[in-house]
Amino acid sequence: MDKKQVTVGAKEGLGMGIVALAILIILLPSFSQQIADLDFIASEAFGILSGAAMVTGVFVLIAGLVVTFVKFTDDEE
C-alpha cells in the first residue's frame, strides 16, 4: 500500500494568508493608537489608521488578483 504523502499546498497557504490579514485588520486600531501615543510622533491615530487601512487594502487587492488568475490543481485521488 503506497500512501501519498500529504503536504501543505496552495489552498492551505491561501487560507492562512487570509487569517493573517484578518488578524492584522482586527489589531490595526489598537496599533495606530499606540503609535500615536509615542512622544516623537506628531500625527493623530486617525491618520495612521487611514494609511494602514489603505496599505492593507492594496495587499488584499493584490491577493485577490493572484487568486483569480492562479490555476489550482487538486491532485487528491
User: What general outline do the C-alpha atoms trace?
Assistant: elongated
Helix-strand category:
mainly alpha
Based on CA atoms alone, the radius of gyration comes out at 19 Å
List the helices and strands in order. Answer: HH
Give the SSE map:
Layout: H1 10-36, H2 45-69
Helix pairs in contact: 1-2
What is this entry, summarized?
With 77 residues, the chain is mainly α.
Salient structural properties:
mainly alpha, single chain, elongated, 2 helices
Give a written overview of the molecule.
This protein starts with 9 loop residues before the first helix and ends in an 8-residue tail after the last helix. With 77 residues, it is an all-alpha fold. It has helices spanning 10-36, 45-69. The longest helix is centred in the first third of the chain and has 27 residues, at 10-36.
